[in-house]
Design a protein that fits this description.
By secondary structure, the protein is α/β, with parallel strands linked by helices. Helices cover 42% and strands 18% of the residues. It has a nine-stranded mixed sheet with strand order 3-2-1-4-5-6-12-13-14, with helices on both faces. Strand 10 and strand 11 form a beta hairpin. Helix 4 packs parallel to helix 6. The radius of gyration is 19 Å and the shape is globular. The N and C termini lie far apart (60 Å). The structure holds nicotinamide-adenine-dinucleotide. Nicotinamide-adenine-dinucleotide binds next to helix 2. The site of nicotinamide-adenine-dinucleotide has 29 residues, from helix 2. Keywords: Membrane, NAD, Oxidoreductase, Transmembrane, Transmembrane helix.
């Protein structure tokens, strides 16, 4: 297959912008999408300019080593980001071991709000924002409230929670994880909602008894503490970029993935918030949501998660009009 033919197989996204491309997640996304041939024109930005230039150089050589033509990677200050089909935001203050994702909310919103004009310009009327900076649901809701972006243009990355749930269910059932379909909806954080009512193995519905559910919940709820105890100073720098590539494929080809999206009118939670839901993705962002029939317990947990996200977003944006 010639380079030209390979390029013409991936006409979308024609361009991706990455804010926070010096960091583990941002540079991982750059590596993943360029070396997989998913996108060959990427604009990257990070205050650590030398580091992001080094990433761009190294990734270019990785692509050439992989047999691809040289990609175009532009390094610019945030305010010079051009319009892109997809804008990935992984800009963040440093994570500290043991801190909840929620404690990130204030410091990261202070950072993100300074980037709103750059993000608005990069996303424009036709692009999509894919937000990875934590806490994603709260920051996505803050962005929706304070920016000119339409709700369907804002996507929060929450795929890893479902990966961990699938793995825990597979361990519980003693089957290969690739056979398991299992979704976590709700908040990416303490108010995550594992959807036991929709678990499938080899496509067939599987019900777990109470004791098995408890073990699975303990397993997934203990993830963050187990990870933090490693004191590695790193986040999920391999799985998240892989998941971002999966989301871009889903957007390009039309797919359903757990994604943090606006809850308005979805039937999963009353009012207006941001939560992980089974989102139908398209090139313009969110094009719909799968309407599943959940258990009363699951609907209740989603409602509480939405209240939590809305409450913190109210505090951060000073939106007293939405306070009870
Ligand atoms: N949603 C998820 O599933 C998920 C998974 C892993 C990590 N994360 C989150 O992603 C974020 C990034 O994680 P990381 O491990 O890459 O962190 P990191 O500290 O390695 O990288 C953050 C980067 O943001 C840059 N930055 C700071 N201010 C900026 C600005 N004004 N403009 C552009 N860039 C700026 C920093 O210089 C740094 O390079 C964190 O908030 C983390 O919690 C989310």
């Amino acid at each position: 297959m010639s380079e030209q033919t390979r390029d013409s197989d991936t006409p979308w996204p024609a361009s991706v912008a990455i804010l926070g491309a010096g960091g583990l997640i941002g540079s991982g996304v750059l590596y993943e999408i360029v070396t997989s041939g998913l996108c060959r024109h990427v604009t990257v930005s990070d205050p650590r300019e030398g580091l992001v230039r080094a990433h761009a150089w190294d990734v270019t050589e990785a692509a050439v080593t992989a047999g691809l033509s040289a990609p175009r990677i532009d390094v610019v200050p945030a305010e010079e980001l051009p319009p892109a089909d997809v804008t990935v935001v992984a800009a963040s203050r440093p994570e500290e071991p043991g801190r909840s994702r929620l404690t990130f909310a204030t410091v990261n919103w202070e950072l993100l709000r300074t980037l709103v004009p750059a993000v608005e310009h990069s996303v424009g009327d036709d692009g999509t924002l894919l937000l990875l900076s934590n806490p994603i649901d709260i920051l996505a809701e803050c962005l929706r409230r304070t920016s000119s972006l339409a709700a369907h243009q804002v996507l929060g990355y929450s795929l890893n929670d479902s990966t961990r749930f699938r793995s825990a269910v597979a361990r519980e059932l003693g089957v290969g994880v690739e056979r398991v379909e299992a979704w976590v909806l709700g908040q990416h954080g303490d108010a995550q909602v594992p959807i036991f009512s929709q678990i499938r193995v080899d496509g067939a519905h599987v019900a777990l008894d109470e004791a098995a559910r408890r073990r699975v919940v303990e397993d997934i709820e203990g993830f963050f503490a187990r990870w933090s105890a490693l004191q590695s100073g790193r986040t999920s720098g391999w799985s998240s970029p892989k998941g971002v590539a999966r989301m871009l494929h889903g957007m390009r080809d039309g797919g359903v993935l757990p994604t943090s999206i606006a809850t308005d009118g979805t039937g999963y939670a009353p009012g207006s918030s941001f939560l992980g839901l089974p989102a139908r993705l398209g090139r313009s962002g969110v094009v719909g949501v799968e309407e599943w029939s959940l258990s009363g317990h699951e609907y209740g947990a989603l409602e509480r998660a939405a209240e939590l996200v809305t409450g913190v977003a109210d505090e951060l944006t000073g939106d007293v009009a939405n306070l009870p």
